[in-house]
């Protein structure tokens, strides 16, 4: 079964860091680009960033560029979203996505 399993969310204070993980538990998405999105309260889904498979090339939204990083661990079938210098406006439910499959989402709440 194709499934993306997320972990690592939670509350965090402004300026701190947090790491989210997305595991391709069925190894269904090898060779594919992984994307991260987030949805803040009352807002639409926002693209956060992505990472390709072959060369692990990353792309980031301007709102997170320089603060967030996406890394792969192919041996663990995992993509991590490493968030630093978190701000209250980063508060959202974060989702990983590959092809048309979404992770279950994890809440990140940044308090001022």
Description of the structure:
0% of the residues lie in helices and 52% in strands. The protein has 112 residues and is mostly beta strands. The strands form 2 sheets. Strands 2, 4, 5, 6, 9, 10 and 11 form a 7-stranded mixed beta sheet that branches. The protein starts with a strand and ends with a strand. The model has no long low-confidence stretch (mean pLDDT 97).
Give a brief outline of the structure.
This protein has strands at 4-7, 10-13, 18-24, 34-39, 45-51, 58-60, 68-73, 78-83, 92-98, 101-102, 106-111. The protein has 112 residues and is mainly β.
Question: For the residues shown, what is the average pLDDT?
Answer: 97
Which quaternary structure do these chains form?
single chain
Overall body shape: globular
Helicity range: under 10%
Order of helices and strands: EEEEEEEEEEE
Task: Indicate the proportion of strand residues.
Answer: over 45%
Give the class from helix and strand content and strand pairing: mainly beta
Q: First CA to last CA: what distance?
A: 40 Å
Strand runs, count: 11
Radius of gyration: 13 Å
Biggest sheet descriptor: 7 strands, mixed
Give start-end ranges of low-pLDDT stretches. none
Q: Count the helices. How many?
A: 0
């Amino acid at each position: 079964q194709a499934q993306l399993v997320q972990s690592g969310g939670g509350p965090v204070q402004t300026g701190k860091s947090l790491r989210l993980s997305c595991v391709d538990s069925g190894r269904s998405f090898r060779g594919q680009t992984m994307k991260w999105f987030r949805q803040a309260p009352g807002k639409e889904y926002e693209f956060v960033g992505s990472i390709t498979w072959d060369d692990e090339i990353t792309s980031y939204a301007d709102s997170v560029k320089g603060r967030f990083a996406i890394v792969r661990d192919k041996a663990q079938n995992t993509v991590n979203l490493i968030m630093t210098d978190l701000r209250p406006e980063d508060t959202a439910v974060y989702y990983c996505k590959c092809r048309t499959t979404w992770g279950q989402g994890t809440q990140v709440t940044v308090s001022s």
